[in-house]
Prior knowledge:
There is one protein chain. This protein is mainly alpha-helical. The protein is built from 13 helices and four strands. The chain has a four-stranded mixed sheet with strand order 2-1-3-4. β3 and β4 form a beta hairpin. The two termini are about 25 Å apart.
Amino acid sequence: MAMNIVVEIPEFYNYPLAFNPAKVKLALEEKSLTYTEKHIDIFNGQSLTPGYMRLNPHGWSPTLVTKEEILTESLDIVKWADRQGSSLGGDAVDRTFVSEWLTKVNAWDGNLFAMFNSPARGMFRYVTKFKIKTAESYAQRFPDLADVYRKKVVSMKQVLREVDDAETVNANMAQLVALLDEAEMRLRNFKFLAGNQYSVADVIFTPVVYRLFSTKKDQEYLNSRPHIRTYYQDLKTRSSYKKVFGISDTSLGTMWVVLPALLKVFWTNFTRRY
């Protein structure tokens, strides 16, 4: 039940530490598109408020509101961005590979990987349980959105089960290894994934490699893949990279975002006023 909203300039709802929004912001920046960025906190329950759930029934980031439509899937938004004007890389890249690669990378759950491997795994679990209680409370207070909230609760409980399920976690790691092996093979022959020009294939893969560094898993996965390491160092020099990962690249920047959210979570759990 997404709302009908008319905007002159696309509005991008972003959380600067999240995996999927990073793909979107990279695409918007690489295409030099004009947009308005709005912060939506996916930790402190802001993304579960009725106003936002009417905009994006998934209750997550990213969301992109354009003149024509509201997009709530990161892959759809990346593709939308690449259709504005000339596609990144133009005719110099392998378009068939780009299409197939976008689908493969999008199928990998970087959030599950982070929850399982991050030193902050306990915090993720704590926050997810808080968000479940918040959604359940909203479901009671807003009957018109009750079904939307119930679906969100089911999906969040599924996340908690998956992170404890060895088969699911192993499948996630196998997916990642397959992606890295294919990328390493291609980067032996090309500067970028789809050829010698940057494309949306690189856009969607950059947060995957970044996630390895943010979870301190880079040595485990990249020591045997030197071409990805070299490629990633080149990506870090792009202005888009700095705009997307500038906050999460520093401990101070990360804490500036996370600490207020955690304080709200702790206080709400203490008062039980969800």
